Amino acid sequence: MKLLKRIGVENINSVMLKADPNKPGYNHGYAHLELETTTAARVAYKKLSKKGAFGKWLITVQWATPSNGPDEKDMQKVKSVFVEGVPNSWGRDKMTEIFKKYGMVEHVVLSCDMHLALSTDIAYIHYTTREAAILCVQSFDGQELSENDSKVSSHIFVNIKVSLAKPFRKGTQNKDQKLSMLSFTLKYVPHP
Fold this sequence. Notes:
Keywords: RNA-binding. Helices cover 22% and strands 30% of the residues.
């Protein structure tokens, strides 16, 4: 917050940083800001978009979609799970092999398939039934997988988090709320 205020970003309601599961104490390279007003968000957008706003860190700023939670009726229809912590070495076939033990997998969507994915370690597993999705979430509660996809001892463990995917609801957000939220990614670019 101090760094944001130092470059002139004011009227901040909240800042959300995603922790990097592979580097404790570091963030995942992106943040979400919610500002008090649309005007404050527009000012923040301009200030964060300026070259050198964070020194040697290259920033990509975009408008974010508010995270209004889905209603219970929509959640009862969800047959997909959201997976975090997926190693880059795991492809669609490996993901299908790991997750088919909970039910028939309709298809797998990896972060490389998502045009606007902010993270490279996520995936969606789409099951044919809701029961399979729920069984998957319950089975992964606090478990770790080894690199070879078994839940037994191994030298390299992968911390995978699984949750029910949130349904996509088109056109339900409040325009003013959407215009007061920003998302930005950080990438270190050393200057010569």
